[in-house]
Amino acid sequence: MPITHRIDHTRRWMETVAVGPITRDELEMHWRAELTDGGEPYPELIDASAATVAFDSTDVRRVIELVKSTAIAGQLGPTAVV
After folding, report:
1. CB 24 within 8 A of CB 57
2. How far apart, in whole angstroms, are the C-alpha atoms of residue 43 and residue 77?
3. Residue 70: pLDDT above 80?
4. Predicted pLDDT of residue 73
5. How far is 40 from 57, CA to CA, in rounded Å?
6. CA distance 75 to 68
C-alpha cells in the first residue's frame, strides 16, 4: 500500500508516509484505517515527499466530504504535510 501509518497511543501521535502515485481510493482507505486504529484525534505528520497526486479536484472534494461526515462527532488532531 502506498500510504502507511504508525500510531503511538502512548505519545498520542501519528506518522504517515505516502510513496508513489496516490489515488482517491487509497486516501479513503487510509482515512478508514485511521478511524479503525483510533488515530484521528492525534497530531499527524504526513510525509508525502516521495508521493505524486493521481486524483483530481473532484476526488479531493469527495475525500473532504468523507472526512467531514465520519469525523463530525469527534475532534481531529492537527495535521502537517511535507
Report:
1. no
2. 5
3. no
4. 67
5. 23
6. 11
What does the chain come to in residues?
82
Mean pLDDT of 15-35: 93
Cα distances (angstroms) measured from residue 82 to each of 2, 16, 17, 27, 46: 16, 10, 10, 16, 6
Which stretches within the chain are classed as H helix? 24-37, 57-71
Checking phi first, is residue 67 left (phi over 0); if not, alpha (psi -120 to 50) or beta? alpha
Cell numbers 462527532 correspond to 73
- pTM higher than 0.70, yes or no? yes
State the chain's mean pLDDT as an integer: 91
Distance from C-alpha of 53 to C-alpha of 24, rounded to nearest angstrom: 9
Residue 1 has pLDDT above 80, yes or no: no
Which residue do the cell numbers 463530525 mark?
72
